[in-house]
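Usage

Read records sequentially. Each one opens with the input sequence:
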Amino acid sequence: MFTRNASLVVFLAATAHAGWAADAPPPPGWYSKSGLSFVMTSGNSGTSTLGAKAEVKRLWPRSTFALTGSVVRAEASEPTRRAIGAPTDFRVETGPSVLKAAKYDVNSTFDRRVTDRLAWQVGGAFDRDRFSGLKGRTLGLVGATYLFANRKEFTLKSGLAATVTHQSEVVDDPTTKDTFVGVRLSADAERKFGANSAYVGGLAVDESLEDTADVRVRFANALAVSMNRRLALQVGLLLLYDHQPSLVELPLFDGPGVATGLTVPARAAALDTTFTVSIVVSFAPRAATP
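and closes with the structure output:
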């Protein structure tokens, strides 16, 4: 698995040959992007979905600090509508609102360039998704990054880091460790299409060195179309894959589909997919700041 992951980064590096020469770096200062999406229905069905993401970045001549966070929450009435009373005398009302999805994550990195392309990096991350069996996962990393391409219309950076992970599960799994060391391979790319469109993608592969079958993959994609200097419409697709998903408690039904009132432990789904459409607000310095 580690060999295949390394081969992927090498392939991405090979595709960056055309953009090897570097353009002038962006001006130092604070940069920020924030996006928000919200959908709500009522009447015959009651649902609400909230998605929010924020990124803050600080650039210095040879250093970069980045902090990102995102939230996805979805609620729905369950049942959608229900009748209360007798068969000939009842009232209709909406069922209580039930949480259907809740994902939270925060990531932070600090890069310090040793040369124009090579840098050392430290960082940390936190994830929480109780529906996938994860109360919380904290990861710390230290490693190096290399800038393969650095042009105005295309950038590509890859990284290799040692990691320490601690996780807390909704249902304790005695076959896995809560704290372990591992390795992360990453690749981040940005491609601009003309003056108003841009694609941003990030791939991170985490593998435990204590159990090499424990592999997690995070693949984030976003395509934005600018409406003006600060506003853009963005669609995003996030894929999260866990080769050894956590345990979750599922309600048990009998053969005819009648609830037994019992729960049983089962593996969560290995792949989670999140699709978002949002309005993004961006701020960036016009000129160099001290």
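Summary fields computed downstream for this record:
- Helices lie at 2-15.
- Residues 39 and 169 are 30 Å apart (CA to CA).
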